[in-house]
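Reopening this one. Same input as before:
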Amino acid sequence: MTSSKHIVSVIIPCHNEEESIAKVLRGFHKGMLAKDSFHFDLIVVDNNSTDQTAEIAEQAGARVITETHKGKGNAMRAGFDNIDPDAEYVVMIDGDDTYRPEEVLRLLEPLHNNFCDVVIGSRLGGKIHGEAMNTFNRGGNWMYTHLVRIIYRLNVTDVLSGYFAWKRTVIDDLAPHLHSQGFAIEMEMITKMSRMKLSVYSVPISYHQRGGISNLRPIHDGIGILQTFSKNLRWHYTKKIEEFEEEV
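Same output, byte for byte:
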């Protein structure tokens, strides 16, 4: 890696994704020559897997960390705690091969050009292949997206996407305020980013049918997402400042 490359920490939360994680990681490796402005620090967060996810990820060249408290929110906070100290950008992508790593430049370029602070990959504004999203989940996504656009006044087109990119400075400010344990983490991030007055935009992405069994429980997780949406209407941003002891 040369000093001219911009470091991107890519957080991939995983629970039993042995069927797909190697393909996701290869997608970043295959594109590295074309993406010669960036160096990808690939972080797989093994979230209490009972299969070979961690071993396969290590063999594929990822940095693997373990989060024993199950839940995507817990895994993401563990990932944020382990991003490269020199990273300029941070990406989140699921480990189930539903999103395409090769499309990561679509998310990074608006950040690199200082167009905005956060980019969300939009499935609803992009291309959903085959049966990747059923009618029930599509309707739920549409409803939550329009609620966020109207009430939080955020110009996004897919609030439950698992493909995000941030400037590093955004994560430094946002991460200390995140508390969701499970799949409400995306809604928590989006609603709090709105309250932080960040510039957030969407870009179209492709979405494919996952391999293996989904960890999402539509009714249970949908209720948690709605509760997070409602609770954060009362949330106000206060920057957390770390205290340092003065050396004597």
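So the earlier flakiness isn't reproducible anymore. For the record, The chain is about 35% helix and 20% strand.
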